[in-house]
Amino acid sequence: MLFASYRIKMSRRPSRGRPQRFFFARLAITLLFLLHAGFAWAQIDVEDIFPSIVTPEPKKEVKKEAPPKEEAPKPPPSVLDRLMNRISRDLTWGGYLRNETAFRIVDPTGFDKVLNIIQLEGRYRLAPRFSLSGRFWAFYDAAYDVESISTVSPRKGPAVPCPDVVNPNTANPDNICDIEIVDHRTKFKELYLDVNLENFDLRIGRQIVRWGVVEGSRVTDEINPLDFYELILRDIDDRYIPLFMVKGNLYLGANSFEAIWIPEVQGHRPAPRGSEWQQFQLLPGHVKPKHAFQDIFSDSDQFKENIDNGEYALKYTRVFTGQELSFSYFYTWDDFPSSFRSIQEASIFGGEVTVNFQPRHNRLTILGTTFSKTFPSFVLNAEAVYVDGKFFGTRLQDRPVSERGEIQRDFVKGAIGFDAYVLGVDVSPALILQYIIGYEKPIIQDVVDIVSALFLRKEFVHNVWSGNLLLLWFQNDNNWLIRPRTNYNVTDRVRLSFGLDLFEGKIGTGQPGEFNFIGFFDNNDRLFWDITYSF
C-alpha cells in the first residue's frame, strides 16, 4: 500500500514540469540530426546543386626549374671531316680476293700457278651528271716459291730449244734457259670520267670497250689488244689490255651512235719470254708507233705526227623489235707486228746466212657489221668484218716471193652463234671462219681458217651449284681445247671452282712457219681450282 500511494502521488503532479524533463533529450536529438545532415552535405559539391557555379580548383605550386647550363658551342667540322662525309655518301665500291691454283698433270708434274689476286673497283659521284670510276688489279704468283723454274715453265719437248742462246759461263744454273719470271703485277685496269647528259654520254680515261655479239670470236671486238700472260685461259676481263681513249655515245630513239678516239698505241702483249705459255714474242728491233702526246714537251715538231698515230672508231646501231643491227668502222694499228726481214748472204763459202728482222706495226682499216635476232626458242648472233691492209708472214725458205718476208692481202672474217635453252641446259654453239683474198702459197696461214666452239652450262642447284663445258676445235690443225668446270657458291660472297685445262694436238718444233696455236701446249694439261671472296 505504501508503494501504491506513492505512484498515485507522482502521477498527479502538475503538467507544467514536462518541458524541463525532456528539454535536454530533444536538444541532443536535434544536434545529432544536424551533425548527420552536415556530413551528408559535405559529400555534395556545389556544382551538383547549382550547376552554374564552378568551384575554383586549388592552385598548384609551380616548381621553378633551374636555368639550363650554358654549353660551349661545338666547333664546326674540319675540312677533312666534311670531305670524308662527302666521300662516304657519294662513293660505291667493291671487289674480290681470289686464289687461283693449278697443278700440271703431265710430266714434269707440279704447281704451275699459285696466283693470289686482289681487285678493287669503285664509282664516285662528283656531281649529278659527273662520276669517276676505277678498277685496280694486282696479283702475286707464289708458284716460284714452291716449285723450281724448270717445273713451272718446262720446255715443250726435246725438239723445242731454249728461247735464247745462253752463255753457260754466265747462265743461272737454276734458270739455264733464261726464262723471264713475272710473278707479280700491279696496275689500274680502268680509270675514267663519265659525263651523262640527257641523250649523250661521254667517257674519258683508261677503259675497255667490247664490241661484237658472238662471245669470244674477236671479229668486230678488236678495240682493245689482248694479254697472253696465260694464253686464252684468263677471265675475259683479265685478258683485255685497257687503253686511254675518249668515247662518246649519242642516243636518238632506236638509233645510237658511238665515236672513239684512242691516242694510246698498244699491241698484243706476249707471255713472258720462255714461260710455259710463250708462243710468239716481240723480236729484237721492234718499233711501236708513238703515243699522241708522247713527245709534246720534248719535241714539239713530233707532236703532229704523233697525233696522226691515234686510232679512230665509229659505230651505228639500230634496234628493231626483237633484233639489232650495227655497222662499224675502225682505223687502227695491227696488234700483231709484221716481222719484216732482210737476209744477208754469207761472204765466204760455207758461212751462215744472217736474217735481220724489223718488226713493225701496220695500219688496218676494219669495216664490220653485227646482227642479232630473238626467236621463240633461241637467239641468233652473227658478225663479219672486211680487213684492209693486213701483212701475212711467209716461210723463210720462200725468199723469192717477197724480199721483206711479208705479203699484204685483205681478208674477211665472220662468226655465227646461237644461244638456246635445251632440256635444262644453256647451249651456245659458234662457228668462226677467216678467208684470205688473193691467197698465195708461201703465206704461213691457210687460205681458210675454221674454228668451232661449243659452250654448255647446267645449273644443278639454283644460284648455288652449276657446271659448264667449253670446247674449242681448231679444224685446220685438228687441235682441241677442252675446259670442264664446276662452280659452287658457299655463300653470297664465297665461291669455289674446280676444273681441267686439256690441250690436244701436235706440239711441233716452235720454229717460224709452224703455228699450232693449241697443240703447242699439249704437255700443259692441268687441274685447277680457285676460291673467290667478293665484297
Structure explained in plain terms:
With 535 residues, this protein is mainly β. The chain has eight helices and 20 strands. It has an 18-stranded antiparallel beta barrel. It has a two-stranded antiparallel sheet with strand order 10-11. The radius of gyration is 46 Å and the shape is globular. It starts with a helix and ends with a strand. The N terminus is likely disordered.
What's the gist of this structure?
Helices cover 13% and strands 43% of the residues.
Strand content: 35-45%
Number of strands: 20
Helix content: 10-25%
Global outline: globular
H/I helix tally: 8
- What does the main sheet amount to? 18 strands, antiparallel, barrel
- Straight-line distance between termini: 131 Å
Structural class: mainly beta
Radius of gyration: 46 Å
Order of helices and strands: HHHHEEEHHEEHEEHEEEEEEEEEEEEE
Low-confidence stretches: 1-20, 37-54
Average pLDDT level: 84
